[in-house]
Amino acid sequence: MSATATKNTSSGPVLDWTAGHGPVTGALSATTGAFAIATTGAATGMPPGWALAVGAAGAIGHTVAGLRNRNAGRTLATHAASWLVGAGWTTWAMTHGPLTWAALGSLATIGIGIGAAARSSALFEEAREEEALAAELRQVAAELSAERRAIAAEWVERIQRICGITVRVLGVEQWPTGAGYSLDLEPAGGITYHRIAQDSARLSADARLPHGCTAVASPGIHQGRVIVDVTTVNVLMEERTYPTDYSTLSLLTGIPWGYRTNAENVLAYLREQCALVVGPTGSGKTNMVHTILAGFARAEDVLTWVIDLNSGSAGLPWVLPALNGEIKREDGKPVRPGVDWLAGTYDEAVLMLDAAVKVAKQRKMAYQDLLSKANTDLLPISPQIPQIELVIDEGAEILASSDRALRKLAEKILEVIRIARAMGVRTVLTALGATGSVLGNLMIRREAKVRVALTGGETEGMDLGKMFPGTRGLRVDQAPYKGAGFMGTPESPAGLFKAWRILPNQIREIIAATSDRHPTLDAVSAKAAGPDYARRWDAERTAWMRDHPAIDDNPRPDAEARPAGGGLNLSALRGETAPVSEEEELARRFREQIDAQFATTPDPDATPEPPARPGGLNLSALRGEQDSPAQRAALNVLIAAGPEGTGASAIARVLADDYGTTRQTVVGWLKTWVEDGTAVRIGEGTKTRYVHRRHTTGQHPQD
Hints:
Layout: H1 3-9, H2 23-44, H3 49-68, H4 73-96, H5 101-163, E1 167-174, E2 180-187, H6 193-197, H7 200-206, E3 215-219, E4 226-231, E5 255-260, E6 265-268, E7 275-278, H8 285-298, E8 302-307, H9 316-323, E9 341-343, H10 346-366, H11 368-374, E10 387-392, H12 395-400, H13 404-419, E11 425-431, H14 436-439, H15 442-447, E12 450-454, H16 464-467, E13 484-488, E14 495-498, H17 504-514, H18 523-534, H19 539-546, H20 582-597, H21 629-640, H22 648-659, H23 663-676, E15 679-682, E16 689-692, H24 694-697
Parallel strand pairs: 7-11, 7-12, 8-9, 8-10, 10-11
Antiparallel strand pairs: 1-2, 2-4, 3-4, 5-6, 5-14, 12-13, 13-14, 15-16
Helix pairs in contact: 2-4, 2-5, 3-4, 4-5, 8-17, 9-17, 10-13, 10-18, 21-22, 22-23
């Protein structure tokens, strides 16, 4: 059968056989049932009294059911009468014949009466239910209204007594979270909200609010109205972890950075604004940075570039799990890092900032047609043309630094802030405090309209007046908890908030959940950024992320167990020897037996030791690693590199399998060799290489 035929055969009215009877179908069912029973009973000689007994039983049953459902007496009487009238007609028709005109006419009349009575009782029951519901709502409203009236009267009297201002309360709104309420006030005599805001602390104390709860005044719907938010539950005291809902976000709809005292999320809108986050040590600033990176990772139209000159610590948790293959996806595809670029060194930061400037300038030229079609001077940000968010940890300190190199870096940061707003490159800077040196830069004050001050109860270096100019009533002691502070945006005035606590396992979860959500840099921007961007994850560029000194849980007590710093161990010059344990003495004797039994020969590739200089101090016995096989092997690699030289990473890779030597250790050796003339350093930054002295002078080093 074709699909058309099937459709035709299934057409027609659809009957719901499970639906209950209405007034019409109920009356029709009752009359047809009575007629069928009367006809059958008359034909078979059924005793008429049986029909009357069945009708009486039905009336009793419906009455009991109606009482359980708490139906009105009118409804109970209608149902019982319908059963009894129908049973009475059936009994009469069985006696005198159901096929007479009198019987049929009376049955039709009874059916119409039953239908009308059923409809009337149904309407009565609906009206009764609606009235009961309305009465319940009126009771709740009356109770709530009484509570609101009490709150309004209390605050009218309090504001009059504390502030000397007469106000009229236009509304009281209880917060859905149950953490407080808001008052809509209309002050008399042209008073603005500033007069009430400056007495926020006194109002909070007079209201006996718990610690951490405040009464904060803010502008209302117009200049003659004031909104007072009263917090009654201190939600900042408890620690809340980052929400496990890793759903897709957009830069254009706001990125959540924490929650207010009313337990509602506070959003940061960063399409045109830069951001400034300040917080002293121990205030939760690093955790706040991770919260910001989590929001950017969830956004489908943001690429995050991170600069942290403190060994890249802010971005490493978002990069290493993916680069090291510690996270696996169900579909087997590789997991992308949680940030798009990480700079932990000065040279890498310069490359990143130069790329950001080039991207902004290239976008201005290449997207003129798009801007014209959209009739805007702001580049339309989307997953196809993502915004670049530069998160610079302690970037405000870089701007205020007097160091020559950092000043160059600061100039590049300011250039990005100055020229890249319309083209979708914005910055998030952090600082250790809200001081004049941090906020003294006009560019920061003008562009960083999204501001966060994490206090943690710290008063030093926390000038909230400079951080949030024009806002009164903010005190550090209002946010004494780690991760708590104040946040202000152009959309919402500065007020108390707290950042979520984000745990390391959540960072890994977010990396895995958002890996396929990260946009790719548009072709125009990628071309402008060039190879510096394309090769940002090359092994040579990311070696610093993995190279760190290994921690020996059981350090050896012999001379080869030297500090990673490579400093001189002058124990040979000490007049007194330190006491040794039995294990150390046993190890020493064992080495002496080995040396006595097995003769040792010098390494043919090793550089010969020079003769002792007369009258001088020979420190060859004090060199921490001159006799180390790993160092001799490193020197051989340097010699074998020839006039072209080699770098620390290349040497470390050669020694890694046999000796487990890290790049940091090799860097220490190379630095020492440069100082004593064994090697010569050529180039700077990522192009640094080292050449052995014999290849630069034609002579063997005299060391």
